[in-house]
Amino acid sequence: DAGVIQSPRHEVTEMGQEVTLRCKPISGHDYLFWYRQTMMRGLELLIYFNNNVPIDDSGMPEDRFSAKMPNASFSTLKIQPSEPRDSAVYFCASSLRTSGSYNEQFFGPGTRLTVL
Amino acid sequence: GQQVMQIPQYQHVQEGEDFTTYCNSSTTLSNIQWYKQRPGGHPVFLIQLVKSGEVKKQKRLTFQFGEAKKNSSLHITATQTTDVGTYFCAGGSARQLTFGSGTQLTVLP
A65-96 pLDDT, tens per residue? Predict the structure, then answer.
């Protein structure tokens, strides 16, 4: 398996533009997570899905952020409009939950977003 | 909500010295996981502890889960330059997995 795939790896955009980050989880995994990592705030959970259904989006900073998972092999995180404070590394992770406990999460390589 | 605190935030050690990072949860956990993130990389799973008082070893790394299942530690014996990175704990409950803020380890040659 290729692992979790994210695209693009780097994104530089201007304030006000729409940004779409993409993620392909590991085949067979039923959980998908979106994280944001910055020096100031560390690793923050934004939203997670179970079987393509959003379960907890309480970490989404504001209405400018939205996430979708139209099928088991694809998810997007959209920021519209983007702002400089959105600059961060965005990670997607997937896992397979068994026996009622959370198993290890497999992280993608991340998308480094810079908003000018 | 569940909070997971990790100390210290930063640690510089001389190569060959030992290193320990500590993780504390505000609530009882069902399990705890540890991850390592190399500079410029992504978090990579190291281990999961489930049982109260559990101790697991991976070569020079020793992981402990507290008796009350609210704290954990990672100890590295005789650090090497390859140990450089940020170590995260992540506390699991029925609802979610909460990551600590991480300990950034620097190993000086």
Answer: 999 999 999 999 999 999 999 999 999 999 98
Question: How many Å apart are CA A48 and CA A69, to the nearest integer?
Answer: 10
Q: Which residue of B has its CA nearest to A59?
A: B98
Q: Per the structure block, which two tokens stand in for A34?
A: 């979106």
Nearest neighbour of A91 by CB, restricted to B42, B45, B101: B42
Distance CA B8, CA B5 (A): 10
CA distance B101 to B9: 7
Rounded mean pLDDT, B74-90: 97
What is the tens place of the pLDDT at every residue in B29-53? 999 999 999 999 999 999 999 999 9
Among the partner residues A48, A104, A108, nearest to B42 by beta-carbon distance: A108
DSSP collapsed to 3 states, chain A: CCCCEEECCEEEECCCCCEEEEEECCCCCCEEEEEEEECCCEEEEEEEEECCEEEECCCCCCCCEEEEEEECCEEEEEECCCCHHHCEEEEEEEECCECCECCCCEECCCEEEEEC
| A→B interface, C-beta within 8 Å | 35, 42-43, 45, 48, 56, 91, 93, 100-110
In the structure encoding, which two tokens stand for residue B109, read together?
Answer: 């040659």
